[in-house]
Amino acid sequence: MRIAVVGTGYVGLVAGACFAESGNDVVCVDNNQAKVRLLRRGKVPIYEPGLEELVRRNRAEGRLTFTTTLAKAVRDSAVVFIAVGTPQGEDGSADLKHVLEVAREIARAMNGYKVIVDKSTVPVGTSEKIRAVLRRETTHPFSVVSNPEFLKQGAAIDDFMKPDRVVVGAEDPRAQALMLELYEPFTRTGSPIMVMDCASAELAKYAANAMLATRISFMNEVANVCELVGADVDQVRRAIGADKRIGTSFLFPGVGYGGSCFPKDVQAMRRFAADKEYDFRILDAVEQVNKLQKIKLVGMMRKHFGSLKGKTVAVWGLAFKPRTDDMREAPSIPLIEALLSAGVSVQAFDPEAVRIAKGIFGSRITYAANGYDAVKGADALAIVTEWNEFRRPDLGRIRSLMRSPVVFDGRNLFAPAHMKQNGFTYYSIGRS
Ligand code: NAD
């Protein structure tokens, strides 16, 4: 099948490369010329495990190309995916300007029947807005499909290749058949393709992210109560996770959720519910809890040190989660900003996100070449992102490098008893 994917970010590039891998001819379109130039040289502008290799192979085999010219890509394709950003607008709602702009450009380029598939996360009613734009701008026939994406950054290729489910909002049989054919290679292992109306598909994406964010904030509150009553959140987590109705995933307490999806999707869902005069109270609490959790380590440090002025704090982890360089809404940002306002010098290390961090903090913090350099002369170490390489450090070396061996572990990477044995004063989330 000949496919165009508009937007070559975390979603569009992964989708494009995976569709090419399954034998389709894919042209990826982006209006960022620098990005397209890089991609044409086989370089991937983001860090996503396995992606560069997948892009390189499919490029070499001629199934994956890159362009800034949307019109030709549309003319040459039967299916056009929209995978551009839907950032948070000023009032919290999803900003649809990129999606609708792309819809307009697609319409103007059409030369026959096309299936236009929205993969961007968009509020209910957006597929109808896309249809309205197309009706206004073209006389060619078309179908609009809503196909929300559920991949996780850091495991995006695996998620796309072996999805738990594929959700397709498609109301006409021709588009439904085409989507079933396109996704067939990814659902051979038995994961379902769920065909539904567009409104349900659009809402399913927000409901999934809002539910996951709710679990995180819920567990963070459980952890906070654990600290107050002398319980251990790890034990509580194991006990509740064993209940099949609850399950084990997304029960890890920490320093809050970040990323380009949960924060904006929780806000957008509240917003479009509010537009229908529905107050989604739970999501308000989910957000408030998350905001406080992101700066929880600062409160713990204040309790330990008193004033933080003049202290040096090493920060391990800047990306919003491991295996990505993405720092959008990362907990490290409010944490470091709070430390800087308190007069702390910050020495940070992240395996992938330093380039992006430099754009955020500039020279206000220092960037270490590795975790050990970061802790040199530090009064405390704050662990913010659970990169695998932080899990088995040489604790003796760290202790000898630090000015005082105090660790504030926002991801519960170590056993408290083990840290104590190794001479650390150790604070973590929800464990005494
Ligand atoms: P991104 O910001 O990484 O990528 C968007 C891309 O679209 C950029 O490369 C940008 O240059 C390009 N673009 C913007 N306007 C354009 C235009 N007019 N023409 C051509 N290209 C244009 O975004 P992302 O993280 O890939 O997210 C895309 C959508 O998918 C969002 O709605 C997001 O909520 C959703 N989503 C993201 C994830 C994730 O993990 N990142 C997961 C599921 C769904």
Short description:
With about 425 residues, the chain is of the alpha/beta class. Helix content is about 45%, strand content about 15%.
The largest beta-sheet arranges its strands as 3-2-1-4-5-6
Question: Level of helix content?
Answer: 40-55%
Using the coordinates above, name the CATH class of the largest domain: Alpha Beta
Instruction: Classify the secondary structure makeup into a structural class.
Output: alpha/beta
Query: Tell me about the biggest sheet?
Result: 6 strands, parallel
CATH topology of the largest domain, what is it called?
A: Rossmann fold
Number of helices: 18
Would you mind describing this structure in some detail?
There is one protein chain. By secondary structure, the chain is α/β, with parallel strands linked by helices. The protein has three domains: 2-196, NAD(P)-binding Rossmann-like Domain (Rossmann fold, 3-Layer(aba) Sandwich); 206-292, N-(1-d-carboxylethyl)-l-norvaline Dehydrogenase, domain 2 (Orthogonal Bundle); 294-427, NAD(P)-binding Rossmann-like Domain (Rossmann fold, 3-Layer(aba) Sandwich), CATH 3.40.50.720. The protein contains 18 helices and 14 strands. The protein has a six-stranded parallel sheet, with helices on both faces. Strand 12 (380-383), helix 17 (395-401) and strand 13 form a beta-alpha-beta unit. Helix 1 crosses helix 3 (51-60) and helix 11 (262-275) runs antiparallel to helix 12 (281-294). Nicotinamide-adenine-dinucleotide (NAD) binds at residues 6-12, 29-32, 35, 83-86, 98, 101-102, 120-121, 149, 151, 153, 260-261.
